[in-house]
Amino acid sequence: MLRFIANSSIVLVLTILTQIGGVAWLIALFFRQRIFAFILAYAALTATAVWIAPIFGRVALNCFDDGPLQVQSWMYCALNRHYVTPELREVLIDTAEEMDRRYPGTETLVLDANFPFWDSFPLLPHLSHDDGEKVDLAFFYRDATGYLPGATRSPIGYFAFEPGPTDCNPRWPTLRWDFEVLQPLWRDYALDEERMATVMRILSNDERVGKTFIEPHLVQSLQVAHPRVRFQGCRAARHDDHIHFQL
Known about the structure:
34% helix, alpha+beta, globular, Muramoyl-pentapeptide Carboxypeptidase, domain 2, four-stranded mixed beta sheet, three-stranded antiparallel beta sheet, 7 helices
């Protein structure tokens, strides 16, 4: 019974994190070298997902591209969280190329996107990344020497919050984490406000984009108010560490 509970828990956690990891663990249970079998099964399923995902209306972003559009960390690719609809991929490519045209050498970094299969399958901890039409972008940063291509304050691009006023009071339930204990650990970079404002305006003026989420204090400081720029609400995750946009 304990073994059943343990394996069920592993399947559940791997499915939540990667969508296909639970299947890989079930396959591995038939082999004596379980961890090795899991790694091989997971790698095979991950590779196969790239070819099957278009049946579900999703395509994988290029994890090895060194051009203007890049996935911020190998982790997002390894966890199969880099899938979008073909239209959203076009918006991402066009946005990154436009940023590179205006500011040569700019790298637009993708964070969490979506899983390869099935609408309404949750990509936790996000509330809405479940249909291939949502994606997060990392902020652009600089230091005393200027723009820092490919740099983020935290290793995964999330949870390095930009301080500013908020009207949100503590309430439950909420995903509005502060992670105050982590903030001193992050790199001491400043926002590249010019690039930030530019990418927000590019997204706001793109008719394919339905809405963009970023914290109100950044909307004000960057002067990027627009009907498509919204506040996600006080119970959703903070958006002063990344940009969320969707079709």
